[in-house]
Amino acid sequence: MSTPSAVSAASSATDVATVVADLLRSLPADAHPVLCLLSCTVDVDIKAVGAALMARLPGTTIVGTTSCQRVASDLGASSKAAALFVSGDGFKAGAASGTGSDGALLGRTLTATAMTRAKLEASAVRLVIVHATPGLEEGVLKGLASANTPNAVVIGGSGADNDLTGRWKILGPDGAFGTGAAILVCDWPWTMAVSYQGGYLATEHEGHITAAVSRCIVSIDHKPAVEVYEGWLGTKLPRGQSILHETALRPFGLAYGVGGGLDVHVLVHPERINDDGSINCFAEVMTGDRILMMEASTSSIIRRGGLVSRYAMQQAGVKVDDVIAGFLIYCAGCSTALGDDVVPMTDGVKAMLPGVPFLMPFTYGEQGRLRRNRIDHGNLMLSALLLTTKPQVR
Questions:
Q1: Secondary element (H or E) of residue 335
Q2: Are 267 and 200 contacting, i.e. CB atoms less than 8 angstroms apart?
Q3: Of 259, 265, 324, 366, whose CB has the highest number of CB atoms within 10 Å?
Q4: Do 50 and 173 have their domain in common?
Q5: 138 and 38 part of one domain
Q6: Could you tell me the pTM of the whole model?
Q7: Which domain holds residue 387?
Q8: What sign results for the dihedral spanned by CA atoms 86, 100, 114, 331?
Q9: Are 333 and 319 in a shared domain?
Q10: In contact, 364 and 253? CB cutoff 8 Å
Q11: Contact 101, 192 (CB under 8 A)
Q12: Which of 249, 271, 294 is at the close of a domain?
């Protein structure tokens, strides 16, 4: 069994032919990657790029998602497209993609198809990568959970565009879709280092959601949600327009007890205030949820990429010399709040993972495991997956 290896590639172009040429340039002519993770901004036709890569790399499992404004990697912080290719003969991968409005059905069906294509039983799946378009995430995760892959690490990122106009797409072997999902499964037999974190701190402001509908908080402690939230913020918020930028550093957190000795919070990004004082969000909320206002500084979210990578290695007991590839999913809300400071944030990841190829799209939602036996969808989060060649501890 050969030792697995990985290479990254990036392009600053937008025309498909140049992007594809740039992405393939790093691969040896006789390379046959097992899997390829791809991300492009909406300025690039991800469907055409994916089709061209699949034609040039038959047998390679490819999934991808659009990214907000830029794509980062170890090759730079502001590419139009980037890819991570992983090769070797000691592991298997399979994927499926599709469209539909029933997220649970889609997640269940795509997971089953991906496992069939990978020739893997559910118990043999050790890694799942999921991409879904905004609004479908919780349903897709429910469908994925029903596939019963108890040994799997799960990492995911939602499709994104540059300006919330709905131009996002996800990509898989069955096509690219503006409403849908793509799921990849893999039996990676070596150690994986993974972390899913918010990196925000809880403030003293908290209450309980007393009325909610899906992704809309109607009331907190029996008061209109906006009245409570503006009281916590100490400022008024604009009506009838996106408030993502204004709330990126002080979003909501849903409190889910303690895990690993730490308070567990799934971050929820407030998106818009409605005329009735309710607040639309980018993740589902439920009546009865304990909700807090969280906070972070610009400097803390700059450092977060590198720190989460280090934490993942510490938790897995691996050294950077063991790591062959990284896949980090960073929230678009944080990246747009950073602006040009995305560069030092990416540099921080590079400093923590010297010489390691990695891919980092900026997404409208992040998925991972904060709680045992559950897969969470949150906002303003960071998911980090580090593939290593260190043998598993049985």
A1: helix 332-338
A2: yes
A3: 366
A4: yes
A5: yes
A6: 0.94
A7: 5-197+300-391
A8: positive
A9: yes
A10: no
A11: no
A12: 294
> 295 - beta bridge partners?
201
Counted residue by residue, the chain has a size of 394
Question: What's the distance, CA 280 to chain centroid?
Answer: 21
pLDDT digit string (tens) for the chain, length 394 residues: 578 999 999 999 999 999 999 999 999 888 899 999 999 999 999 999 999 999 999 999 999 999 999 999 999 999 999 999 999 989 999 999 999 999 999 999 999 999 999 999 999 999 999 999 999 999 999 999 998 787 799 999 999 999 999 999 999 999 999 999 999 999 999 999 999 988 899 999 999 999 999 999 999 999 999 999 999 999 999 988 889 989 999 999 998 765 555 567 899 999 999 999 999 999 999 999 999 999 999 999 999 999 999 999 999 999 999 999 999 999 999 999 999 999 999 999 999 999 999 999 999 999 998 877 788 999 999 999 999 999 987 6
What is the total count of domains within the chain?
Answer: 2
Give yes or no for a contact between 72 and 302, defined as CB atoms under 8 angstroms apart. no
Q: Are 175 and 64 within 8 A, CB to CB?
A: no
